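Input.
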Amino acid sequence: MTDRTLVIVVASGAAWEPAVLQRLGDHPGVVVLKRCVDVDDLLAAASAGQADAAVLGLDSPGLDRAAVDLLRKYAVRPVAIAPGGATLDGGRLRAARIGIPRVVSEDDLDALAGAVLDEDSPETVVRVPPPSGPPPQGPPAAGRVVAVWGPAGAPGRTTVAAALAAELARRKRRTVLVDADPYGGAVAQQLGILDEVSGLLSAARLAAAGQLEERFGSVQRGIDGHLSVVTGLPRGDRWVEVRNGTVEHLLEVARDHAEVVVDTGFSLEDDPGSDYGSRPGRNQMTLGALDVADEVVAVGSADPVGLSRLARGLVELAERGRDAHVLVNRMRPSLGWSERDIAGMVAGFARTSGLHFLPDDQATVDRALVAGRTLTELGDSPLARAVSRLADDLYAANSQYGRSPQAVASPPGLPLVRA
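Output.
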């Protein structure tokens, strides 16, 4: 290569730092642009757009998937230095989980310059042996992610999400209900879960440490043998603790284990401030869930205000390239509209994947809320039957996704919070 590679280094006081600086400084193809004191300083240096690569101590505080994603955004190739010896495989695994493909052992720093200069093979892991053991026997069976979205005005997102997840669990499908509302979750309260630990915040911490896959069971709270819940934010102001990419990663991990239903927020607006640093956008939790979802259910109230808000939301979803199964909630004769009338209105808003109606069954909803139970636990009702028809439509072509009709029950050791 004709030009020299500009490198920034963050070691956070590691013993290997002097040796790394010497080796990089002595190499004719490398220039050490800056020695950073921490990950925040590293990201600030990367944002200047001058660096080509970053050498990172794998144990640096704050080094997580979001930080690595920002480095890639600024076209900076990350190279991790991991402890050697018996812990090397563990370091390699953690690096892979937060998105760093190049790993060099601190016992083999002679390989560092080659890793820094290697532009052509971005997926190469340098001089690190693969984990021992037999190869996996094909990909694991995957579930589907259904995102339940709805505009402002409490159209019934949480009620629908909980009811749909409970219906899938009633059909003996392993199901995970995720509360990803950035304005404060309500799933735990609705289902009578009194655990004070937020599953979403726990998942965010594990994702940042690259440990979410192996400890996924610890962020769930069991409802019964087939349904578990990842509880949401205990307060709306704690959305800042969920970094960009966390919800997407959580849903992808959950999809490897079960069918997934996710309760989202109402706003589809981008936060421009998130483009200038590691601070997440508040609505990114909702937008990320919609991006990952296999199906989107858009919930709107049957009244004029609710339908107007739903219309604007369907247009915004279409602008993001998402069709939706439209669910008109609280349908009642007193409105003076038939289902055909509303179907005509919805058809003029945007293209949809299907249209469903839920009756105004407030008595059943109140009983479920007061008891902290799902609709299916209360037995037969008009509302439960309507949710069952929605599940039939969403999962009618389920066989093409490789899922059997009978999914496995919850893994042993999943904490149950209700009888």
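The two ends are 66 Å apart (CA to CA).
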